[in-house]
């Protein structure tokens, strides 16, 4: 079994490498959070996804550690492709590097849409879509 608490390496390009980890935490009001922490050049950025109305963040049934989602999408923060998508979206918006916490739900829709598009099979050009 893998240790999901250790820092993992994500290479974005030849000169950019992040170390990252995912943690589940509880807050005083009883809510849950999944926290994706990125480390680069001494800067620590936490992308926080907190459970709330229509949103879930890991933990108990039916979820899992690192699992976040809303009514339409589910992402697993332990998947390197998901982390890469969060990093790419945060970079695209000019949010990295940033020392502190970012609201992960602000990035979630774009990341989920991108991940869903990446998972969709290509339809050959000479065939119409459908079964």
Give short descriptive properties of this protein.
single chain, 131 residues, alpha+beta, five-stranded mixed β-sheet, three-stranded antiparallel β-sheet, 2 helices, 8 strands, globular
Structure description:
This protein is of the alpha+beta class. The chain has one domain. 22% of the residues lie in helices and 37% in strands. The protein is built from two helices and eight strands; from the N terminus they run E-E-E-E-E-E-E-H-E-H. A hairpin with a 3-residue loop joins strand 6 (67-70) and strand 7 (74-76). Helix 1 (80-92) packs across helix 2. The radius of gyration is 16 Å and the shape is globular. The N and C termini lie far apart (38 Å).
How are the SSEs placed, and which strands pair?
Blueprint: E1 8-13, E2 16-26, E3 32-40, E4 43-50, E5 55-57, E6 67-70, E7 74-76, H1 80-92, E8 100-103, H2 104-119
Parallel strand pairs: 4-8
Antiparallel strand pairs: 1-2, 2-3, 3-4, 5-6, 6-7
Helix pairs in contact: 1-2
Bin the strand percentage: 35-45%
Which sheet architecture does the biggest sheet show? 5 strands, mixed
Alpha-carbon distance between the termini?
38 Å
Q: Taking all residues together, what is the mean pLDDT?
A: 86
Neighbour order of strands in the largest sheet: 1-2-3-4-8
The quaternary organization reads as single chain
Number of strands: 8
Secondary structure tally, helices: 2
- Name the shape in a single word: globular
Q: Supply the helix-strand structural class.
A: alpha+beta
How helix-rich are the residues, as a percent range?
10-25%
> What value does the Rg take, in angstroms?
16 Å
Please indicate the count of domains. 1
Low-confidence stretches: none
Element pattern in H and E: EEEEEEEHEH
């Amino acid at each position: 079994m893998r240790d999901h608490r250790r820092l993992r390496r994500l290479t974005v390009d030849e000169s950019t490498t992040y170390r990252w980890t995912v943690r589940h935490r509880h807050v005083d009001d009883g809510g849950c959070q999944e926290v994706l922490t990125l480390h680069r050049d001494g800067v620590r950025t936490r992308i926080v996804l907190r459970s709330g109305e229509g949103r879930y963040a890991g933990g108990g049934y039916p979820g899992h550690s690192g699992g976040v989602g809303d009514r339409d999408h589910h992402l697993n923060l332990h998947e390197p492709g998901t982390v890469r998508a969060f990093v790419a979206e945060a970079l695209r918006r000019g949010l990295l590097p940033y020392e502190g916490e970012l609201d992960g739900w602000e990035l979630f829709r774009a990341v989920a849409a991108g991940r869903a598009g990446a998972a969709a099979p290509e339809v050959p050009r000479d065939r119409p879509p459908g079964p």
